[in-house]
Amino acid sequence: MPKKRSGGGLSPAQQAAKFLGVSVLAGVVMAGIALPAAGALGLAAKGSVEGFDHIPANLKRPPLSQRTTILDSQGNKIAQVYSRDRTVVDLKDISPYLQKAIVAIEDARFYEHGAIDLKGILRALNKNAQSGEVTEGASTLTQQYVKNVFVEEAGDDPTKVAQATQQTLGRKIKELKYAIQVEQDLGKKKILENYLNITFFGQQAYGVEAASQRYFSKHAKDLTLPEAAMLAGLVQSPSRYDPVNNPTEATRRRNVVLQRMAEVGDISQEEADRAKEQPLGLKVTRPRNGCITAAKGAGFFCDYVREVFLSDPVFGRTREERAKIWNQGGLTIRTTLDPQAQEALQKAIRNHVNKSDEVAAAAAVVEPGTGKILAMGQSRPYGFGKNETQINLSVDRAMGGGAGYQPGSTFKPIVAAAALENGMPPTKTYASPYKMNYPTPVTTCNGLWKERGVPVENENESEVGPYAMKEATAKSVNTYFVELISEIGICPVTKMAKKMGIERADGKALEQAPSIALGTQEMSPLTMANGYATFAARGIHCTPVAIESISQRIGNTTKSFKVPKTTCSRAMSERTADTVNTLLKGVVEDGTGTQAGLGSRPSAGKTGTTDFRYAAWFVGYTPNMAGAVWVGDPAHKRRMENISIGGVWHSKVFGGQVPGPIWRDMMSGALEGKPALPFTLVDIPDPERERDRGRNDEDRDEDKNRGRGRGNGGFIGGLFGGTGGPGGPGGTGPGGTGPGGNVTGGINGGIPGPDPSFTLPGGFFQGQDGGPRGIDSGQRG
């Protein structure tokens, strides 16, 4: 016996001919079904029928949009995001009760007719004519499915949605032709499966699986008879029959479905009556969509993952293409987030900073040598309410962050690295007076920086040189690093920063001004953590990555995406990195960062406090992890003086005092159970001291350089001149040996070249009141 066609035994062409043969029915009867008045059609029946043969033969069936699941590195769910909350399931995973209920109430003759139910059309015409209004439709399940495909394809575009649902004869005829083609291609069971997966059931639930989870917190395959009848009844009007907000109407509608199932013989009248007596039995699971629902405070990391997907060309040529894939969903994204590190980060911030504080805290943790982002979070939660925000304070503006924050003295190790990489010895000594003017001119990548009379000073008057690099780093001596960058020039520093992935949060190029040595250009915590990871990895910089793998389920198939890979390159020699590690190890052992120490576990880091204490930092690392903690006012308005943070009063906030303990607690928790790896250290001899300078026990996290500014436009606050302090020992280059002059004379008298090995003839420059000075070895007064 030949196989019977799914369309009631007629071919698509025969069905079309049959349909066209009843053009009066199509042009007038359909008008009566769709609208009370045929004159409101907006499209003549004759013209629509004439255009029938020009409708494309193949119906586009877009993959149904589904929820996307974001996982941490251990496979734990972070969050679910979706444009449509939908999980596509096979027909075998849908309760038989629901299959029968939807057919009974929506299209009882579904298995008997083809794409078009002419009996149904006549029945609906008769009832509508008797009532004088539209009381019954005649769309088959196949036609309804086709309409839902159009709506799905329209997405969230209101204009396209209106076009897909407009009540015109033209759209009806287009829908009918596609229904004929779908019946031929798919068959009844597949059409029913697709219909049940695409249909909207209210409460943000698309498809039966999402609806079953929403209303009954169970899988669609486990639905009972009364539960299935309730869901089937929702399809006609999800808002009117919403069981959550209108249980009376929902119950009434459910009972209508049960009675209809009994009338068509799907269940007995006795079964229907028993089911009608049962309560709705709701066990509602509220909609939980988006990064706002993320576990362990990972909402901002979740948002960062979305930004990575939308911005990286690896996922599509244009942002529009990438957004279409994201909205389509069905993705499973495994990320680099380490649950232990994330929990430790959030706990540390929560214990030290309240979300209602005048200032906020943000932090990020990166794995050296891989670039993997292990943790990210902040004190102000992801959300829309009071003391909440959607701005990710840990990342650059392009990735959902703000304009960044001045990193202060945490930038000084980059200056030190640039100097060491260009041949400067770590024993290099400068006069480092308490107060001085910026030396000028200073070489840049494009010429010279020239500004005179711009003052800079140290945090405490007791900080008076001469200092060598080790002690200057431990005590964070401003004037030392100003003298250092003045000698090596700005260009080696900006080039080193670029190699380490350290860039401005606003996306602009680093400005060529010597104040960069003191961290005047805004950066994000993720940038600083990733940059310091270069030191931990002994000079290897790896670009940050957040995604390990992505797969997408479309129908019954699953495909994998290529994901962005980290790019690793050598930013500095191992010797340079080891030397910086030695310098920064001293900061946490005997410097401004002692409150951030990890006890017996080797660690290194640097404090930073900006002008007027708008921001305070601690950036540090072990060989396993690198982390940055920032505390401050994102709006850059509240100075951290006479302020309560986390319930603790501070007259002045320093980098080692608030961010330091947060970093300590964060890293201690993140590293618990992990090996305590050692650094490879170098021997940095201490130069002989001319006099004994007692230590000031106060945290001297500096940056009190009131004359800092940018570029050739001058320095903010540079309205007052400064007097030079005493010079240090004389140079030892070709110019001979002799005492240096005063700071403004002896230092300003020389123009440092871009290359430390560059040599000028001895006595080429002279200080105002000092003898001839050589600069071959970089020694200065």
Jot down its keywords.
35% helix, Transglycosylase domain-containing protein, 781 residues, single chain, protease, 24 helices, elongated, glycosyltransferase
What topology does this entry show?
Blueprint: H1 12-21, H2 23-34, H3 45-50, E1 68-71, E2 77-81, H4 96-106, H5 118-131, H6 141-154, H7 158-165, H8 169-186, H9 188-198, H10 208-216, H11 225-234, H12 247-263, H13 269-277, H14 299-311, H15 319-328, E3 331-335, H16 339-352, E4 360-366, E5 373-378, H17 412-421, E6 429-430, E7 435-437, E8 442-443, E9 448-449, E10 455-457, E11 467-468, H18 469-475, H19 478-488, H20 491-499, H21 525-536, E12 540-542, E13 547-554, E14 557-561, E15 568-570, H22 574-590, E16 604-609, E17 615-621, E18 626-632, E19 641-645, E20 648-652, H23 659-671, H24 743-747, E21 765-766, E22 772-773
Could you walk me through the main structural features you see in this protein, from its secondary elements to its overall organization?
The protein has about 775 residues and is of the alpha+beta class. Helices cover about 35% and strands about 10% of the residues. The strands form 8 sheets. A 5-stranded mixed β-sheet has the order 2-1-3-13-14, covered by helices on one side. The longest helix is centred in the first third of the chain and has 18 residues, at about 170-185. The radius of gyration is 36 Å and the shape is elongated. About 50% of the residues are buried. It holds the Pfam family Transgly. Keywords: Carboxypeptidase, Glycosyltransferase, Hydrolase, Membrane, Multifunctional enzyme, Protease, Transferase, Transmembrane, Transmembrane helix. It comes from Streptomyces thermoalcalitolerans.
